[in-house]
Every structure is written in C-alpha cells, then in structure tokens.
Prior knowledge:
The structure holds two protein chains of two kinds. By secondary structure, chain A is mostly beta strands. Chain A contains no helices and nine strands. The radius of gyration of chain A is 13 Å and the shape is globular. In chain B, 0% of the residues lie in helices and 48% in strands. Chain B contains no helices and eleven strands. In chain B, strands 2, 4, 5, 6, 9, 10 and 11 form a seven-stranded mixed sheet that branches. In chain B, strands 1-3-8-7 form a four-stranded antiparallel sheet, with no helix packed on it. Chains A and B meet through strand 3, strand 7 and strand 8 of A and strand 5 and strand 10 of B.
Amino acid sequence: QSVLTQPPSVSAAPGQKVTISCSGTSSNIGYNSVSWYQQLPRTAPKLLIYDNSKRPSGIPDRFSGSKSGTSATLGITGLQTGDEAVYYCGTWHSGLNTVIFGGGTNLTVL
Amino acid sequence: EVHLVESGGGLVQPGGSLRLSCAASEFTFSRYWMHWVRQAPGKGLEWVANIKEDGRDKYYVDSVKGRFTISRDNAKNSLYLQMDSLRAEDTAAYYCATAPWENYRYTIGYWGQGTLVTVSS
C-alpha cells in the first residue's frame, strides 16, 4: 500500500481532458515538491512534471501540475491515444527520509 | 542526452547476493544525486535508495536497510547496488536513475532501461 494515494485508473475520450489526483500528508506532499512520471507500456518512466508544476524541456504544455496543501494534481488536455500509460506521483517523505511514489494511475484513452 | 546502462541482474537463490552496476555518461555524474528504483512484475514503482553527489549521504527504503548498500565511483562514472540476503520479494526490474539537475535530491529526471533481478530457488 503506497503512502501517496492515486486512483487506480481513469479514462476519457481523445481530445478531452483528464485529471489525476495524488493525496499525501503534511510529512510528504505538504512539505516537499511533487513530481509526476509517465510510464508507457514496456518502457522506463519519464519525468513529466517537477517542482509541482514545472515541465522539463520537451514536455508539451498539454501536461500540467498543481499542488494544494497535501494533495497534487496532474492534468492532461487534448488527450491522444499515445498518452495511454501509467502515471505516478512522487515526492520526498521527510519523516521516513525516503522518496515515495503513488501506486500509479492507468490512463485509458477510449 | 543522459545515458544510464544497468548490468548485473540475473537469477539468484534466496539468501544470495548480487551486485548491480550502472554506467553513466553524457552528464557530469559527480554533480548529481543518483538513485535505484525497482518495479516488481506488474506492480508500481518502489524507490530503493539514493546517494549524494560525493557519496557521503545515503538513504534507503526500510525494506532493504541492512541488506542493500548503494555506492558510487565518481572517477568511473558508475553507480552500484550491493544486494545481500536476497528475498523472493526483491524480484523486480531495477532502474538506475539520476536527478534532472544539480542540487535535486529526490526528483528523478532520467532512468536507465532496467536490469531484471529474480530471486528464486
């Protein structure tokens, strides 16, 4: 059971928007910045969002991140079939002194 | 483009040992935090350990403390994970990973392709 809570799955139609939530506590999300990772089938994860809302070079602005209190949200607009992947949130847990990930959310683009 | 290549995975019996290596290139290795992250078959990501740029600070997930040791050789641009007293639940793909920029301790910017460790009799 992950310290960060994500919905197991979300789905939406091509072109639509979807949001993925990530819920934590004051010891992790509440105190540290959140990152989001995309793992396409049979590939290594890729950094999508860092410092809660910043996008690395090459990540399209269809991907956005936000944080409020002890929760974070990943937003994806203009959904494409190529966005079908598992998305993970991650941060530092100050009490445990470890990196922690959410359990992952499987995105299906119908 | 950052390049990370893991090696050393394989089949090992419970209680056995294995040493994973990661060869890094195309970035200034000595200036970045480095990580090991694992993923059991069909499961999510589990962070294993990280190590500071100079190797002085190391952190581990509770489940591997006392059994796994992370280390680095900045002269060889290499990261290592010594795994002892292996258990069936350690079976996973192990990813070598690095921070995206200097001074980022827990954000993971780049990942290798992973090396599979199977613990079974």
